[in-house]
Design brief:
Elements: E1 3-12, E2 17-26, E3 29-35, E4 42-49, E5 51-56, E6 58-59, E7 62-63, H1 70-81, E8 85-93, H2 97-110, E9 120-124, H3 146-152, E10 159-164, H4 171-179, E11 183-186, H5 193-202, E12 206-207, H6 223-230, E13 235-238, H7 247-256, E14 260-262, E15 276-279, E16 282-287, E17 290-292, H8 305-316, H9 320-327, H10 329-335, E18 352-355, E19 361-366, E20 369-370
Parallel strand pairs: 1-4, 5-8, 8-9, 9-10, 10-11, 11-12, 12-13, 13-14
Antiparallel strand pairs: 1-2, 2-3, 4-18, 6-7, 15-16, 16-17, 18-19, 19-20
Length: 372
């Protein structure tokens, strides 16, 4: 048993901000949070729950699809941890079944080391609509079958998040997946409002990067966006980089539902000085932090989670603590781990970050281990 304590100037526990607190850790868990007794060092800044990113395609110069192995996961984890991410889902975009198998095995191996923050895996496809494919490969898109379900439900993967288009799967398949513990999110879809609602009734609980690559909100056809905004008990990921979503649209989403989740949809250039990377044989270029292919289509982002929090404060006109909750408590609730992550309280995992008055990272702990 390993115990250690430190004191902080301010602490946000997920509900309120407290001043001058001493945090005691026992191994990977928070044992206690008590008022500071005026002895020992007091770290300046604000301690908040660690940020959880459910959509990470790459970082540190590495694309998970290109290198679905343990070493790549470690590199991506390090790249994102410097920006406040202490829990994340390596995300594999539409690819072959063989690549999905390799990625799953890499995640199983990565989860044996809790300090890289891997909570599970996000398969974004290949059961998507070619009509709303974005930069995903239409050639690799297909229907879901039994071997896929067996892959998603194998032991050791941790949390499995699967993005599907309702037109590519049946409600019966969604129910089978969710009954087996898979979290199903809807995205990259041209589905009608009615079809999206039917998928929700079958067990889907989320929407992948709200507004982007989905049927839009219309006055007579609400589309998938309308289904997301009208469903108060579902969660919607949103990319607040100032490129994917207009601030007014983001504010509408925030005011419409309490379950908004900040995501990065990060590509390899996060934590890298490079300005170009290969994506399934085509070059993706960075221009003023906008990532596009040769046809000008958006291809993920260069966003990191702390920047997403800062952007949420500005774009949504909310307080910092509320923005932090969108990046910690909301994803924890979506993933069903809200009793372990997303708050700073006795018995919770000791994954947390210390930020200064400009919301820059000063220190980071993952499962009780100080990484920065």
């Amino acid at each position: 048993m390993n115990k250690n304590s430190f004191s902080v100037e301010f602490l946000f526990d997920g509900n309120s901000i407290r001043q001058h607190q001493t945090v005691t850790l026992c191994d990977d868990v928070i044992e206690s949070i008590k008022p500071w007794n005026s002895t020992g060092e007091l770290l300046s800044g604000l301690l908040v729950p660690g940020l959880i990113d459910i959509q990470v395609n790459g970082g540190g110069g590495v694309l998970f699809n290109a290198e679905p192995n343990l070493n790549a996961i470690k590199i991506i984890a390090k790249a994102h941890n410097q920006f406040g991410t202490t829990g994340w889902l390596p995300t594999l975009v539409t690819d072959s079944f063989e690549k999905m198998e390799v990625a799953a095995e890499a995640v199983i191996q990565a989860r044996k080391d809790p300090y890289n923050g891997v909570l599970g895996i996000h398969f974004e496809g290949p059961f998507l609509s070619s009509e709303k494919k974005g930069v995903h490969s239409a050639r690799l898109m297909r229907q879901l079958d039994e071997k896929d379900i067996a892959l998603f439900t194998q032991q050791g993967l941790g949390i499995v998040l699967l993005t599907v288009a309702p037109e590519r799967v049946t409600d019966e398949q969604i129910k089978k997946l969710t009954d087996s513990g898979v979290i199903v999110s809807l995205g990259h879809s041209a589905a009608s409002y009615e079809d999206a609602r039917s998928a929700l009734g079958a067990g889907a609980t989320g929407f992948t990067h709200l507004y982007n690559a989905m049927s839009p909100l219309g006055s007579r056809e609400p589309g998938m966006v309308g289904a997301a905004l009208a469903s108060s008990d579902t969660f919607s990921g949103i990319i607040l980089d100032g490129i994917h979503v207009h601030a007014a649209a983001a504010k509408v989403a925030f005011q419409s539902k309490t379950n908004l989740v900040l995501v990065t949809d990060a590509m390899p250039l996060v934590g890298s000085e490079e300005n170009e990377f290969d994506f399934f044989g085509q070059s993706i270029l960075r221009n003023n932090n906008r990532l596009t292919d040769k046809d000008g289509r958006l291809a993920g982002s260069t966003l990191d989670m702390l920047s997403a929090v800062r952007n949420a404060v500005k774009m949504l006109d909310i307080e910092l603590k509320d923005a932090v909750n969108l990046a910690s408590n909301s994803p924890a609730r979506f993933l069903g781990v809200e009793k372990k992550y997303g708050m700073l309280s006795e018995g919770y995992q000791a994954s947390m970050i210390l930020i200064d008055e400009t919301e820059k990272l000063q220190a980071s702990w993952c499962e009780g281990k100080k990484l920065i």
